[in-house]
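Throughout this chapter, every protein is written as a compact record of paired, labelled lines. An example of such a record is reproduced below:
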Amino acid sequence: MKIERLRAFMSRDKDRPRVLIAIDTDDGLTGWGECYNHGPDKALFPLLDYLFPMIKGHDPSRIEYLIMMLMQQARFPPGALGLAAISAIDHCLWDLSAKALGVPVYKLLGGNARDRVKVYAGIYTAPDPLEAKDEMDALYEQWGLSAFKLSPYRINIHQNRWGEVVRTSAEYFRSLRETVATHYDIAFDAHAKIFEPKQAIQLGNALAPYDPLFFEEPIRPENFEAWGEVKRGVTCTLATGESLYSRFEFLRLLEARGADIIQPDICVVGGLLEMRKIAAIAEAHYVTVAPHNPMGPLATAVNLHFCAAQPNFRILEYRLPQGPGYRFDGGGDKVSNAPVAGEGAFYVKDPYLPKDGYLELRPDRPGWGVEINEDILGTEDYVHWQRKVPIKPDGSTGYV
């Protein structure tokens, strides 16, 4: 079995572009992978064109060798876009290796350490408690989801006194706890908007009395010692890691005792191979892994196999693949293969869907266990996406 061809596709997932790749072998197998949506997504195509000749003609099951080749050919460590491209190639190699043997990918990772994978859903921004209750209850009734993540901010953090930001966030969480079902887990994602560690500690401790599942990424990722300071100062569970790129960066974070839960992204760090190495280091530090997974249904499939085999897995971020806001209007347990503009990702025919709040394994399906709809790939209109930088009252910029 030799690598013969790489095909890259621009697709879309609601309001964001998605870049998928296929690697074909000389014996007719195809492996699939998904790049991360950092932006600019069109820049991934020349990167993939540049990388592919290095692996063409090789045996795709030599995953360690091939990924190390792609990492080491760069004189300087690859950054966001380079690692997004390498991640998707890594996904393809695992998919091909498992398909060649007729087994699910998790069988190549030592087998499944668990029978199913628990997931949580994002309830984006911070809806009023009654509105949040309605959405959480609908997701619970339809899919059994009982863990959710929201934003902690109820007011603009740049245009209000910080004490008011903290007070309104704490009152919001208290009101949520009084409104929603008591068995729901609720996490908060601060989106790395806070510059000062002391402010992050104040916000985390204001949320702590109401038992958050975790307090995610309050500060920027660059200063690992600052993360140690935040963790020592907060009394709730602290999570971070979606913006870190390698086992070396995660080692620094863990040595600084900077997190209770790490959140590497399998489409960011270089793929499943690097993800396993990162998780092993975390396990040695008694830290669990809750993968960052805001991407499409193929990325979810890749994550499922990692989570199934990883002993220190905690919970997986999950987005329903179709419907407005990634919800399914009217309930049910099926998805449509007829694209509706702006309402989901349709390039996976049979995405993993929750049952009782978990994703079930597919032991009878080789590779990632999903089928890609190639008739859709490349036919959808490109949708431009970029982050909007906030402007503070004094005219300076803030973190997105």
